[in-house]
Automatic annotation (TrEMBL):
Name this polypeptide is given: Uncharacterized protein
Domain of life: Bacteria
Organism, as annotated: Pelagicoccus enzymogenes
Amino acid sequence: MKKRAFLGKGSRLGVALGSIFGTLVLVGCGDSHDHDHGSHGHAHQAPHGGALGMLGNHAFQIEIVPDPIRRELDLYVLDGGAQHFVRVGAESIEGTARAGSREWQLSFRAVASEATGESVGNSSLFSASAPELVGLREFVVSFERLELLGQVYENVVIPYPEGSH
């Protein structure tokens, strides 16, 4: 009697599984997207759990993160994929926060770190005092003008917590 391999060439189960796999590969996930594609899609995760704002065509991301313990807002400058810190030469970044009819001026100051070697004027982390904001569930941070590594971005708006991408 001739023995057949369970999933070998010509086995019915092997042919069936191959057909199913081939169909899944060709169909993919279609054009309707309400899920994350991981490394091959355009969904970026904020590395610190904040709100991301895209600058340019994936040139940079700005992440806004409230710190309720310090009562401050942190601003991280990240690459377009929100995976790597990008050090910039600014000593401060000026912005405005809005919640309803209230408005606050924010001055994000560069944060030096011995652990990372970052210094004022060569940092990816900026922090602003914001005791009124850290307890709010929703607010908007905007920047009239951001200059990052020689590139200028105007009228940048980042809603918290959803971000803008």
